[in-house]
Amino acid sequence: MATERITPVDLPEPRYEYGADDHVFVELAEEMSFTANFKAMAITQQVAERDIDGVVENCPANASYMLRIDPEIIHPDDLIAELKEIESEIDLENYEWETRIIDVPVLFEDPWTHETLMEFRERHQDPDGTDLEYSAELNGFDGVESFIDAFVGAPHLVTMVGFVPGLPWCFQMVPRNQQLEVPKYVEPRTDTPSRAVGFGGAFSVIYPVQGAGGYQLYGRTPIEVLDTEQTLPDFRDSMVFPNPGDILNYRRIDREEYDAIREEVKAGTYEYNYGEVRFSPEEFFESPAEYNERLMEVVE
Amino acid sequence: MIEIEAGGIASTVQDLGRTGHYHIGMPPSGAMDRYAHTVANYLVGNDTDAATVEMTYQGITATFRDDAVIAITGADMSPSLNGDPIDTWETVAVDAGDELELAFATEGARAYLAVAGGIDVPEVMDSRSTYTLVGIGGHEGRGLEEGDRLPIGDAPAERRELVGTRIDDEDVPDYANEDTVRIVLGLTSYRLTEEAKETLCESEWTVSSEADRVGYRLEGPDLEFEEREQPFGAGTDPSNVVDLGYPIGSIQVPQQPIVLMQDAVTGGGYATVGTVISADRGLLAQRQTHKSVSFESVDVDEAIDARRDQNARLEAIRADIEGEN
């Protein structure tokens, strides 16, 4: 497994699309891959650096990106011409970025998400099991324990932030044949506990606030990804903690540790455990398992 | 200061919204009907970005604790001052102690109350707009309730001279009959069959009861997707795509279409098939539940022209108001 490498994907020609008069949407690929995501990040970073007049929002996504513009300042066609130029100049092989390796403690099979998933059983593919039992079976694991082992066995890269403020979409940093994949609920739930850790398609997420949701529910983290009051030390500069390009390391914890961290969060003293590192896609592709291990060394 | 006696159904403080934070999942919020919000501000001598009170279906009842100059635009909620009806789309004088009362909307869905000096709640991320989902902006991040006190910004005494100003009748939208909103097809519209794209543009849709500041769910015929093997990461349903960013005004098709509005979810995994043009988003926001809506497909240059026309019209209204006084 340690010798397995990730092969960069040949991406199709991007689709450049108008979102009415005031958005440009660019789909880099229909399927998810690290290559598509790194390209979305590299292009939007270049757009930010160029500080293009008339661009008012700059949003990288999993395998696409979107810009909001003032079309009375820049015509969408002129912007698209510039985006094509950026696209042709992007050199993904040498693209690196400063990132954070973030420890994310998770209480799996917690009582709160369990209550929710039981409540919405009739909207699920497998009304007689739990979301974890369903996911484990679908991905060929012999049980929930080994599925959770795989889920926490390699870190997850934040490939997009959105839906609601602070929600990270994360793509696990393993070769395609080890990627977990599960459908979303047949019918979305009208309720999800805040801080629930879920999975849908090939993405793990952390729900920042209580609300609707359609991802399979696995557990709950005691830490916050959104702090609108900005009282916690890590939120002084922004209400939202995770950024695209960050790397989350989900760590299995017990109820005792969950409660202890929760106390710290409520007291406003909890500080995220994270380390900073320069991420090299080339080295990651070359030897993902070994590279991940080295990345994890920056978190105690 | 304005003291709220009844908050109505969903009344929030809104300006033109917050920009620059969409990439962390923060929608712009802001007035759903930018045209009505802006005209209300112009009628009281404010700039377009001053905060107003947006009221949905049923307006507020409130007592003014100071003299003020106000204007009410948008949906007709039969406003009255101390029990006497007052005109909408017109500048009105209010004395300290006066009680303003709005009723149910007869036409349109959203009314705007502008006060000279603007609603002076604190800014959050450079905007006074309320975003209720996470509870930020506006008055304590939520809809208005009995007992709330809204501060009013300072305004020069000359604003009283605007009282009695009204805009031309031709500039007052006909919410009861304007049922066509223009869209630009695109985004991931390749997911729909050609027939489905025609169905989208040729059918009469009905605004469902799930229509709010986040999105308008519409009811009508089913739309067929192109068959494909679902790409890796998208999920199994034909309507699923690898999660992507949603433009404001975009039409997504989980089954029946949902048009995303000012408090939009910023991204997700449903195919998007087009976007309501910026000039017509306010019209959609004024369509009541159970009313019909039709989409007219236009190209991007027509969409930009419509935006320019609307801005030019607003500028002319502002010039008229200034010229009269």
From TrEMBL, chain A:
<dbReference type="Pfam" id="PF02682">
    <property type="entry name" value="CT_C_D"/>
</dbReference>
<dbReference type="InterPro" id="IPR003833">
    <property type="entry name" value="CT_C_D"/>
</dbReference>
<keyword id="KW-0547">Nucleotide-binding</keyword>
<dbReference type="InterPro" id="IPR029000">
    <property type="entry name" value="Cyclophilin-like_dom_sf"/>
</dbReference>
<dbReference type="GO" id="GO:0016740">
    <property type="term" value="F:transferase activity"/>
</dbReference>
<keyword id="KW-0808">Transferase</keyword>
<feature type="domain" description="Carboxyltransferase">
    <location>
        <begin position="14"/>
        <end position="233"/>
    </location>
</feature>
<protein>
    <submittedName>
        <fullName>Carboxyltransferase domain-containing protein</fullName>
    </submittedName>
</protein>
<dbReference type="GO" id="GO:0016787">
    <property type="term" value="F:hydrolase activity"/>
</dbReference>
<keyword id="KW-0378">Hydrolase</keyword>
<dbReference type="GO" id="GO:0005524">
    <property type="term" value="F:ATP binding"/>
</dbReference>
<dbReference type="InterPro" id="IPR010016">
    <property type="entry name" value="PxpB"/>
</dbReference>
<keyword id="KW-0067">ATP-binding</keyword>
Automatic annotation (TrEMBL), chain B:
<keyword id="KW-0808">Transferase</keyword>
<dbReference type="InterPro" id="IPR029000">
    <property type="entry name" value="Cyclophilin-like_dom_sf"/>
</dbReference>
<dbReference type="GO" id="GO:0005524">
    <property type="term" value="F:ATP binding"/>
</dbReference>
<feature type="domain" description="Carboxyltransferase">
    <location>
        <begin position="23"/>
        <end position="314"/>
    </location>
</feature>
<keyword id="KW-0547">Nucleotide-binding</keyword>
<dbReference type="InterPro" id="IPR052708">
    <property type="entry name" value="PxpC"/>
</dbReference>
<keyword id="KW-0378">Hydrolase</keyword>
<dbReference type="Pfam" id="PF02626">
    <property type="entry name" value="CT_A_B"/>
</dbReference>
<dbReference type="GO" id="GO:0016740">
    <property type="term" value="F:transferase activity"/>
</dbReference>
<dbReference type="InterPro" id="IPR003778">
    <property type="entry name" value="CT_A_B"/>
</dbReference>
<keyword id="KW-0067">ATP-binding</keyword>
<protein>
    <submittedName>
        <fullName>Biotin-dependent carboxyltransferase</fullName>
    </submittedName>
</protein>
<dbReference type="GO" id="GO:0016787">
    <property type="term" value="F:hydrolase activity"/>
</dbReference>
